[in-house]
Amino acid sequence: MLTIYTATVPVKDQDQADRLKQICIDYGLPIWEDNKSFTFTPYKKNYLIFAMDYFYICWVDTNPTDKIITEQQFIELLKDTRL
Question: Do residues 18 and 38 make contact, with C-beta atoms less than 8 angstroms apart?
Fold first, then answer.
């Protein structure tokens, strides 16, 4: 089943990373508090993921999952999630 905890959101730039961090904060989601946890890394594939009990932005060379969704789909899933 697709949830905010199993989905992966591609991140295109730092503005989107900042926006996704604020969405997580606004909805009370746990975020990794490291100062680099929502930093966009140019020239890499960046994703918002949930791992180790936190949401954060990471970069990888290949898609980390087949459950890739858009930012808007993430927001819609979030609205339907009981927190």
Answer: yes
- At 31-75, the pLDDT tens digits run 999 999 999 999 999 999 999 899 999 987 766 667 899 999 999
* Secondary structure E strands in 1-83: 9-11, 45-51, 54-60
The DSSP letter of residue 8 is B
Question: Which of 26, 20, 19, 18 has its CA nearest to residue 7?
Answer: 20
Task: Give residue limits of the domains in the chain.
Answer: 9-79
Q: Chain-centre distance of CA 59, in angstroms?
A: 11
Burial grade of 26 (CB within 10 A; 0-12, 13-18, 19 or more): exposed
